[in-house]
Amino acid sequence: RWVAPPYINEQLLYLASTGTQGLECLEADSGKLLWRHPSIEVQRVLGVASDVLVVQVDSGLIGLDSQDGSFLWYHAVEDSFDCFCAPQGESVQYVRRSPSIEKNKYSPQLVWVDVKTGQESFSSNCWDLTTDVSSFGPLFGEEDRIWSLFGYGEQSINRELIELQIQADSQPMPRQNVPQSNPLDPWSDVALPVRKAAELILV
User: Fold this and answer.
1) What is the pLDDT of residue 120?
2) How far is CA 65 from CA 1, 117, 156, in A?
3) Of 13, 63, 172, 184, which one's alpha carbon is 20 to 30 angstroms from that of 103?
């Protein structure tokens, strides 16, 4: 299997088998295995911010404690361009499709996710695009500026570099304290009484 280059942060190495299951954390000096999540469907390790390791999985983003690997949050992502940015400050950004009032058009919507909670904290529509936009990304940033590449049509190899900016009428999203499922725990979406009964049977 193909393994992506390790992500290194404070003498810790995070190793992921891209597109398959598995995430490991090793000591950089000794190579000692500190923790492992064998069941994560890893797409890529995005980075560490505020002691939270942000990982893109097949259905969204997860936040893990960067030291012990414990699960912190899960953020589901729908209609994504598969266009994610490494954490910057207290947030991580990605781009999703947002419906337009015009027929056969949609808006790339830039979304900010709080790295401490996994909640969407802000979103901003960029501009209306036709449905033949086949390429958007990668997304990359520096301080408070974010850029991306995009292209029209499946046959075109040309890509344009654009800077994404917040629109004046964009509004912060209200803080939501919604219980989140844990993709590392197959029982997380099962009602608590059913889980307790199953635990008794399994024991």
Assistant:
1) 93
2) 26, 12, 42
3) 172
CA distances from 1 to 6, 9, 86 (A): 15, 24, 24
Tokens linked to 65: 């404690």
**Amino acid present at 86:** A
What type of residue sits at position 61?
Answer: L
Give the residue from 24, 56, 30 showing the smallest Cα distance to 41: 56
Q: Looking at this protein, which amino acid is placed at residue 6?
A: P
Full strand arrangement of the beta sheet holding 145-152 = 133-142, 145-152, 160-164
Beta bridge partners of 8: 13
- Answer yes or no: are the C-beta atoms of 107 and 128 closer than 8 Å: yes
* Mean pLDDT, 10 residues at a time, the chain of 203 residues: 74 78 90 90 90 92 95 92 82 84 76 94 76 70 80 72 67 45 55 40 38
Per-residue pLDDT, 141: 81
Judge contact between 48 and 9, C-beta under 8 A.
yes
Q: What is the DSSP string of 77-107?
A: --SEEEEE---BTTEEEEEEEEE-SSTTEEE
Burial degree of 113 (CB within 10 A; 0-12, 13-18, 19+): buried
